[in-house]
């Protein structure tokens, strides 16, 4: 039995297997051999933070696998009143085939897996958003597959993430893209760069795959195959902190013109005219709605891989 708490919880070969399965499930969405995999089974979805895509993509995906999702937010479950994560993990394992949890501290997830006897999946924490990265890699493979090497044909491609480099997405891009062998550059100003522990973790993985993990203040997307950004204010971050230095890192038409072959990705929700201009996110290089759709396919593949 395996959990998926960080992008490193799948080896490079396993990640490629999940992504190949995601592509197959997308091609054959309703009539595939896994459509009854979760028949009469329930998946628990715990949301301590708000969500649109995660809530609906997991709910739809589990339905398409023949199962049922029960969702609870932190206020409506006893965890909100102090029931331990360990007790909750033990109890939910008696009812559910898997536990999906969007929470704050990564340590919360680590506490739950002490007792959970079914797979626990990180549906976003303060440190990582690994399900999103599977969807992003699926989108990269759809658009750029074959231009690189490795099982998905994306190894050795170049991705650049600009903006808040000290959030969950930046950490997961480093770790998840390094796992896929995709070179990843985090382009962020001082004070908004990833913690060294996350850079090191990604570089450990990159040593296995040959990917490069770079952190820089310099804004340069020339030669990029993928340009990415995310909100400048993530859930749980302090809104009173001065984040104006991020303005230089906006993804706009002028910047994208220097990466004419690149696709643009954003995990969404997006804030137009902050981290990205409407001309980019609604423009010809954007693949953000395919990326959002791929949450569903990639997560179905992950569930199948963990539960079959
Ligand atoms: N990208 C993503 O996880 O979106 P939600 O916050 O809407 O779930
Ligand atoms: N970094 C964002 C991602 C939202 C899906 C946040 O944590 O709010």
From TrEMBL:
Q: Which InterPro entries match?
A: Asp/Orn_carbamoyltranf_P-bd, Asp/Orn_carbamoylTrfase, Asp/Orn_carbamoylTrfase_sf, Asp_carbamoyltransf_Asp/Orn-bd, Orn/put_carbamltrans, OTCase_ArgI
Cite the binding residues for carbamoyl phosphate.
Answer: 51-54, 78, 102, 129-132, 267-268, 295
Q: Could you list this entry's UniProt keywords, alphabetically sorted.
A: Cytoplasm, Transferase
Q: Where does L-ornithine bind?
A: 168, 230, 234-235
Where is this protein found? Answer: Cytoplasm
**Which pathway does this chain act in?**
Amino-acid biosynthesis; L-arginine biosynthesis; L-arginine from L-ornithine and carbamoyl phosphate: step 1/3
Q: Which GO terms describe its molecular function?
A: amino acid binding; ornithine carbamoyltransferase activity
List the Gene3D superfamilies hit by this protein, alphabetically. Aspartate/ornithine carbamoyltransferase
One GO cellular component term of this record is: cytoplasm
Q: What is its main location?
A: cytoplasm
User: What is the designated name of this protein?
Assistant: Ornithine carbamoyltransferase
Natural source organism: Corynebacterium heidelbergense
**Lineage of producing organism:** Bacteria, Bacillati, Actinomycetota, Actinomycetes, Mycobacteriales
Q: Its gene?
A: argF
